[in-house]
Amino acid sequence: MKKLNRMAKNKIPENQFKFSFGDDFLKHHAGQIVTDQNYAIIELVANCWDAGSTDVKISWPETGGKLSISDNGIGMTKNELLYRWGKFNYNRIVEQGGKDAKFPKNVPHGNRKVFGRNGVGRHAMFCFNNEYELKTYKDGEFTHIRVVKSISGEKPYDVNLIESKPISKSEHGTEISTLIDSDEVTLIDTTKLIELIGSRFISDPQFNVYVNKHSVAMTDLSHLTEDFSIDFNGSKINIKRIFGEKGKNTKQNGIAWWYNRRLVGVPNWGTFDTQIIDGRHPIAKRLLYIANADIIDQRNLKKDWSGFYITDEVIKLQNAVYEFVRDDLRNLLYETRKERRLQVYESNRMQLASLPSEAKENIVNFLEEVQSKCPTIGVQELETTVEVLAKMEKSRSGYALLEKIASFHPDEIDSLNQILEEWTIDDAKKVLSELRWRLELVSKLEKLLEDPKADELHDLQPLFEHGLWIFGPEFESISFISNRSLATVIKNLLNDTALANERKRPDFVILSNSSIGVYSCESFNEKHEPNDFSKIIIVELKRVGIPIDTKQKDQALLYARELRKSKKVSLNTPIVAYVLGSEIEPDANETFTEGSVNIIPCRYNIILAKAHSRTFNLIKKIEEVKSITYTSEMDEVFGSNQGVLFDQA
Question: SS3 of 326, please?
Answer without folding.
Answer: helix
